[in-house]
Design brief:
single chain, alpha/beta, eight-stranded mixed sheet, eight-stranded parallel sheet, 24% strand, binds N-(iminomethyl)-L-glutamic acid, binds fe (iii) ion
Length: 424
């Protein structure tokens, strides 16, 4: 006996409805698919032909015809440095002339120049910039965004950035998931005394962040020449002890045991991983640590060993290890002045060789897994958030296929239209 389900939103008859079952490796495409929602959650999804007998639209129920279009879960960007502010175009120019990323940082530029710019900017300026960034991301179909501090580097300044991220997200449709990244660089005041700065993170910053309940994750830029594996381990373990799950910038510029450390501490994700070892990736798979690749950043690091073949080899090793792959923008003023998840996805397919299905999984359920939100967002199965995108695309391959355009036609957050016109 079919009990009919009450609903307040029906998106019907998509050319391809991508259910993206939580944590899986298939898109779960339903041709001619319909998804029904109630109170901001999905309550039913299946073939259009079965919808009529299964659903009982409430008075005022919105019905949208997605005929000919693809419907996916709202995108999840699992790695951004939001709030970030300021322009580093001169540094971009220096890099084009051959300067190295760590060379610029050592000279007080790079991350440290953004720290200076952001310290001098008012709360209103930074909050406004972050809101503008969230608007742009939402317009691209992104409904959940991770946001890292890391351009403060003192307890007060880091707490301020976390507060501003929360404020920017509080009255915005995009869900902001905050990460504390006090270990992003050694501030000039601690030049040559990195361990003393680590003590400040352990003694002052982490307890305050935890007490204020202002971040969910703790991240470290673990890289030879920045924070060592030993320093990173201490910070991540203390974070875990205080209720902040670990994330890690790992093996971005050189092999340094970052992937191994991420697995050891049970990190929810390890990100970049351009130089992660096969052993480290296998350990991540065993620990359930998601591999977040950042294709836009790769464009800033091209040259030397880093090229398309290198990236594809890393992905082959990730597949062999059986680790879940997610994609992020890494939005920041240095390596990735890019807010576009759609561009990151197109580059993931072209540079890293991800299939279209892998790319969409990586921007939905696997990205959700990188934030500990698998099943809650990034899927369109009953119980998941009614966050969804109706694409200007007739098949899912068309999403990574095009680049440099915004193909997100309609965006729904928690069952509410937040971008696009009512079609029916
Ligand atoms: O993920 N690697 C460290 N952090 C950023 C870059 C931040 C910056 O250059 O301002 C990244 O690439
Ligand atoms: Fe980053």
């Amino acid at each position: 006996v079919n009990q009919q389900l009450a609903c307040d939103l029906i998106v019907s008859n998509a050319a391809e409805l991508c259910l993206v079952p939580p944590g899986g490796n298939s898109l779960g495409v339903v041709a001619g698919g319909t998804v029904a929602c109630l109170n901001g959650r999905v309550i039913w999804a299946g073939p259009h032909a079965h919808a009529k007998g299964s659903l009982a639209p409430l008075p005022g129920c919105v019905t949208v015809d997605a005929g000919g279009q693809v419907v996916t879960p709202g995108l999840v960007d699992p790695h951004t440095h939001l709030p970030s502010y300021g322009v580093r175009a001169r540094e971009f120019e220096l890099k084009l002339r051959g300067a190295g990323y760590l060379e610029i940082l050592a000279a007080g530029g790079g991350i440290l120049s953004t720290v200076a710019t952001m310290s001098a900017a008012s709360d209103a300026t930074l909050r406004g910039a972050a809101r503008g960034d969230l608007d742009f991301m939402l317009g691209q179909g992104v409904t959940t965004v991770e946001a890292k501090s890391g351009y403060g580097l003192t307890a007060d300044a880091e707490l301020r950035l976390l507060r501003l991220a929360a404020e920017a997200g509080s009255d915005h449709p995009v869900t902001v998931v905050p990460t504390f990244l006090g270990a992003h660089a050694i501030p000039p005041t601690f030049k040559g005394k990195p361990d003393a700065y680590v003590e400040v993170i352990l003694e002052d910053m982490l307890p305050a962040v935890s007490r204020q309940g202002i971040a969910q994750f703790c991240d470290v830029f673990c890289e030879p020449g920045v924070f060592s594996v030993e320093q990173s381990r201490r910070i991540l373990q203390e974070g875990e002890r205080l209720g902040l799950r670990a994330k890690l910038h790992a093996d971005e510029l050189a092999a340094g045991g970052g992937a191994e450390l991420a697995a050891e501490v049970g990190a929810v994700s390890a990100d970049h991983l351009l130089f992660a070892s096969p052993t480290g990736l296998a350990a991540m798979a065993a620990a359930g640590t998601v591999a977040v690749i950042l294709p836009v950043t790769v464009l800033a690091l091209l040259g030397g060993e880093v090229g398309v073949e290198h990236c594809r080899r890393q992905v082959a090793q990730m597949r062999d290890a059986g680790v879940q792959i997610a994609i992020g923008t890494d939005y920041n003023p240095g390596t990735a002045p890019c807010r576009s998840m759609q561009l990151a996805m197109s580059l993931a397919s072209r540079v890293f060789g991800l299939s279209s299905a892998e790319t969409i999984l990586a921007a939905t359920t696997h990205a959700a897994a990188a934030l500990g939100l698998v099943g809650k967002v990034g899927s369109l199965v009953p119980g998941s958030a009614a966050d969804l995108v109706i694409w200007e695309a007739a098949s899912h391959e068309e999403i990574p296929y095009r680049l440099g355009e915004n193909q997100a036609a309609h965006v729904y957050k928690a069952g509410r239209l937040v971008k696009g016109r009512m079609t029916t």
